[in-house]
Amino acid sequence: MKVTRRAAFAATALTSALVLAACGGSSDGGETTTPTSDPTTSAAPSPTETGGGELTGSILIDGSSTVGPLTEPAAELFMQANPGVQVTVAVSGTSGGFEKFCNGETDGNNASRAIKEAEIELCGENGIGYDNITVANDALTVLVNGEAPVACMTVEQLNAIWTEGSSITTWGQIPDLDVPAEFADTPLSLYGPGTDSGTFDFFTEAINGEEGLIRIDYTSIGEDDNAAVTAITGDVGAMGYVPFAFYQEAGDAVKGIGIDGGDGCIDPTAENVQNGIYTPLGRPLFVYASDKALQQDATVAFFEFYINNSDQIADIAGAVGLTDEQKAEQIAKVQALAGG
After folding, report:
1. Total domain count for the chain?
2. Residue 251 included in any domain
3. How far apart are CA 134 and CA 128, in angstroms?
């Protein structure tokens, strides 16, 4: 799954790589060099060197459809700087990815939620050590049609709509929501991700108070968040929830409503997420990395590159970058897991 910004990325990747490679560190402090040729040509940046030679190896990452569009450009840019390394990124959902990761089939798992107890146990049974590396932030966004006369909703109103057993079928039935009389009878059509999605788990816990607790009569879009955007674009009464990147890409046909978590209405913006005031739908986005994978220089270098260049990578994918404090914390995690 790829967001539409990926088309623009293809046209600018080489130029971006020259900038990013210059500030991405290697695992032992070796310098990253860049070519002197015109960046519009097909020449790739020179590889990061570690221990006197080129980095080589392969890295396999699976998991979240929310984090995948971040890890994909990170992988492509890293491979341009380090052509001896092959980084493969797949998307099977956070839960599906954790099953592979904890069975030792992958080196990292893109995750839009924290690892669950059953997954912790599976990793333990298979001797997989790990840590969660935060690679970006997300303002999980409640979307409505651009023509819907709604700008903000409380957590209680969202709970009334989405919780298990809800019988709300029109906009006028939403408790204490002030909508024009002509809109009150408009049918409410709901769209959300499938149950393997970390976004599903996060939203249901944040809004309904329990992971997985949700009404059953909504349209599941699986791992394809663009499907929710498309449906909401074409239906004035539709609502769904998607990662911030998909809201950013959608244009004026949809709008992301503000959320009132008890302290007034807060809009889904990068600044509000980084300031910690977009609650309860602000969240970190992770790549879980295994200790075994981080015994390889190439894997350490990839994660350090990803973190150091998180602002540019997040901008490519439409997500929210890391703060300087987060970057320092994540680099320390990588080094600790690698035994350095």
Report:
1. 2
2. yes
3. 19
pLDDT tens digits, one per residue of 130-149: 999 999 999 999 999 999 99
Half-sphere exposure of 251 (CA within 13 A, CB side): 7
Are 73 and 97 in the same domain?
yes
Burial class (CB in 10 A: 0-12, 13-18, 19+), 2: middle
Residue 279 falls inside a structural domain: no
- Is residue 315 scored above 50 in pLDDT? yes
| Tokens (6 digits) for 258 | 């503000």
Its pTM stands at 0.79
Q: Domain span at residue 171?
A: 141-274
Q: Which two tokens stand for residue 123?
A: 């990793």
Q: Which structure tokens are listed for 23?
A: 């500030």
Concatenate the DSSP letters of all residues of 47-73 into one string: PPEETTEE--EEEEEEE-TTTHHHHHH
Count of all residues that appear for the chain in the document: 340
Q: Which candidate, 280, 299, 275, 326, places its Cα nearest to that of 135? A: 326
Residues 291, 224 share a domain:
no
Radius of gyration of the chain (CA): 21
Q: Are residues 290 and 308 in the same domain?
A: yes
Report the candidate in 73, 57, 70, 74 with the shortest Cα–Cα distance to residue 111.
Answer: 70
